[in-house]
Design a protein that fits this description.
The protein has 387 residues and is mainly alpha-helical. Helix content is 64%, strand content 1%. It has 18 helices and 2 strands. It has a two-stranded antiparallel ribbon with strand order 1-2. Helix 11 packs antiparallel against helix 12. It is flat and about 75 Å long.
């Protein structure tokens, strides 16, 4: 496991710990809480734990067939983390290689392969889902491919498992195709890939299901890899953004390239919404480039215009930011009012919950309008990041 993957796992585990605490806070002493308000957190946590466990699993006989195919969520997780371009590439390469080592390319219609999404959606008639899953992993099923010495019920379970297997293999067929392309044009050629290989390689990544923002990072890295002239990939810098700094051309190029993954410098617009950690990272880059606070604030405002996070989730996720303004009496009063509604939502019936939720939303909006729009908290925290 390379250092980039170890860093990625550590970042995910730190986020998972925060999410677990927030879910506990939102769920404790709750008999009537509207579950929709914590579903987003639970889904993020579940998907992240699955990915962490898969990345950590060693490749051995017991793990053959345990491939990972949800590269859309994998992409979203990647882009939420403050990762460098080469780190994103190494993490993706690790995942592709691991899938191949787990036997993804050997899966075919003659095999039994079960995708959990398909398995969970299929309505079994021969037995309960638990019985089916227990039977599927039992030696009796594994060593009876021709239904020898099976009971009538077990034969019926075999028939349904065969249907699920065919559906599962059809479901992951694009991922298998993408891995075949990447195995032929990327893994077998690294580090000596050619310029003409890149469009084919990018098709492989796209077929696997990676999202556009990750594809952009991967393509840029591959172009850098095959480029003979490092200066050919300089990203234009708008001089009006910069104060005078003693940065080498290489440092300037690298920092502006990293910033371009989050903000379109040429068109002066945000690319996507960011997590708080990503905001710290982007500010850190801009500070190192010498951007003025006025320019940084303008960029952050444009980025935050894209944000559409549930206020309850947002409150739980970045409470520390709001608490940092407690010295201001007006903000302190608003925070105490918010905390009151927040706690009340854990101890009330459905009708009272709806009322407290509406009051929480109104008060939260008041908090956002009252907190200074100068990002001083983010500016301060970003200085703690390693350069």
């Amino acid at each position: 496991m390379n250092k980039a993957v170890e860093k990625f796992i550590k970042l995910m585990e730190e986020e998972n710990n925060r999410l677990e605490r927030n879910i506990f806070i939102l769920s404790r002493r709750n008999n009537a809480l509207d579950k929709k308000d914590i579903d987003d957190l639970k889904d993020i946590l579940k998907d992240s734990e699955i990915l962490v466990n898969w990345l950590k699993n060693p490749v051995n006989e017991d793990c053959v067939g345990k491939v990972f195919v949800n590269f859309r969520d994998f992409s979203e997780t990647l882009k939420r983390k403050p990762l460098k371009l080469n780190e994103i590439f190494k993490i993706v390469l690790y995942a592709i290689t691991k899938n191949i080592e787990f036997g993804l390319l050997e899966i075919n219609e003659c095999d039994y392969y079960f995708n959990m999404d398909i398995l969970n959606k299929y309505h079994f008639k021969s037995a309960s889902k638990k019985e089916i899953i227990d039977f599927a992993v039992s030696k009796r099923f594994i060593y009876s491919p021709f239904e020898i010495n099976l009971t009538a019920k077990e034969k019926e379970m075999c028939r349904e498992l065969a249907i699920v297997s065919k559906k599962s293999i059809a479901y992951i067929q694009p991922v298998i195709e993408g891995h075949n392309i990447l195995n032929k044009y990327l893994l077998s050629k690294l580090p000596d890939i050619e310029k003409e290989d890149i469009p084919i390689i990018m098709d492989g990544f796209a077929v696997c299901g990676f999202t556009a923002n990750v594809l952009q990072s991967l393509e840029l890295y591959l172009n850098n890899l095959v480029s003979k002239k490092k200066d050919s990939i300089v990203i234009p810098v708008k001089e009006r953004h910069l104060n005078t700094l003693q940065l080498s051309n290489k440092e300037l190029r690298t920092l502006n390239k990293e910033l371009s993954y989050y903000y379109d410098l040429d068109h002066d617009k945000a690319i996507r919404e960011l997590s708080l950690d990503e905001e710290f990272y982007v500010i850190n880059i801009m500070q190192r480039l010498g951007y003025s606070k006025e320019v940084m604030t303008n960029i952050l405002n444009k980025i935050n215009e894209l944000s559409n996070i549930n206020p309850i989730v947002l409150y739980a996720r970045i409470y520390d930011k709001y608490a940092s303004y407690k010295e201001a009496e007006k903000i302190k009063d608003i925070l105490e009012e918010l905390e009151m509604y927040f706690q009340n939502m854990f101890m009330c019936d459905s009708e009272e919950y709806t009322i407290n939720k509406m009051c929480f939303y109104d008060t939260f909006n008041k908090l956002i309008m009252t907190i200074p729009n100068d990002y001083e908290y983010e500016f301060s925290e970003s200085l703690n990041l390693k350069r």
